[in-house]
C-alpha cells in the first residue's frame, strides 16, 4: 500500500526554523515528482515547493522563496527546510507525489503535519 508519512511539524516562534520530512513507501520513488502543499484554516490548499523526479528542478511559491528549501534523497525521503518562519506560514503541510513518467500519472497525498508559528 502506497504511503506518504510526514513528520517534523510543531510549534515554533516567528523567525524560527523547522524541518519537515516525508517518508515514501511502496512506489517507484524515482519516477515521481514530489511537492509540499499547505492549507491554512479557511483557505485553499496551495503549492509551497516542488522538486522534479531526479531532483534537478525545484520551484517555490513566491511567499516562501529564499526561506524554504525542498530536497530529496535516494532513501525515499523528501524534506522541507523552513527558515525565517512567519505567522502566515501556519498551516497543515502535506506531502504530495505525482507519477512523472506518464500523462495523468498517479497522485498520492500524505496525511499532513501541523506547523504553527506563534509567539
Describe this structure in words.
The structure is a single chain. The protein is an all-beta fold. The protein has no helices and eleven strands. It has strands at residues 3-7, 10-12, 18-25, 32-39, 46-51, 58-60, 68-73, 77-82, 91-99, 107-109, 113-117. The strands form two sheets. Strands 2, 4, 5, 6, 9, 10 and 11 form a seven-stranded mixed β-sheet that branches. It starts with a strand and ends with a strand.
Give the topology, please:
Blueprint: E1 3-7, E2 10-12, E3 18-25, E4 32-39, E5 46-51, E6 58-60, E7 68-73, E8 77-82, E9 91-99, E10 107-109, E11 113-117
Parallel strand pairs: 2-11
Antiparallel strand pairs: 1-3, 3-8, 4-5, 4-9, 5-6, 7-8, 9-10, 9-11
Give the structural class. mainly beta
How many helices does DSSP assign? 0
Determine the mean pLDDT.
Answer: 95
Biggest sheet layout: 7 strands, mixed
Number of strands: 11
pLDDT below 50 for ≥5 consecutive residues: which ranges?
none
The SSE string, one letter per element, is: EEEEEEEEEEE
Note the gap between the termini.
39 Å
Helix content range of the residues, please? under 10%
Overall shape? globular
Which range does the strand content fall in? over 45%
CA gyration radius, whole angstroms: 14 Å
What features would you highlight for this structure?
119 residues; mainly beta; 7-stranded mixed β-sheet; 0% helix; globular
Concise account of the structure shown:
This protein is 0% helix and 52% strand. With 119 residues, the protein is mostly beta strands.
Amino acid at each position: 500500500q502506497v504511503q506518504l508519512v510526514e513528520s517534523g511539524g510543531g510549534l515554533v516562534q516567528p523567525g524560527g526554523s523547522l524541518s519537515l520530512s516525508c517518508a515514501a513507501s511502496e512506489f517507484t520513488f524515482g519516477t515521481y515528482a514530489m511537492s509540499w502543499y499547505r492549507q491554512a484554516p479557511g483557505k485553499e490548499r496551495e503549492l509551497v515547493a516542488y522538486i522534479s523526479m531526479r531532483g534537478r528542478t525545484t520551484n517555490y511559491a513566491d511567499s516562501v522563496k529564499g526561506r524554504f528549501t525542498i530536497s530529496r534523497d535516494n532513501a525515499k525521503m523528501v524534506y522541507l527546510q523552513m527558515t525565517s518562519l512567519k505567522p502566515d506560514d501556519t498551516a497543515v503541510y502535506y506531502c504530495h507525489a505525482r507519477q512523472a513518467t506518464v500523462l495523468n500519472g498517479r497522485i498520492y497525498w500524505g496525511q499532513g503535519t501541523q506547523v504553527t508559528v506563534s509567539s
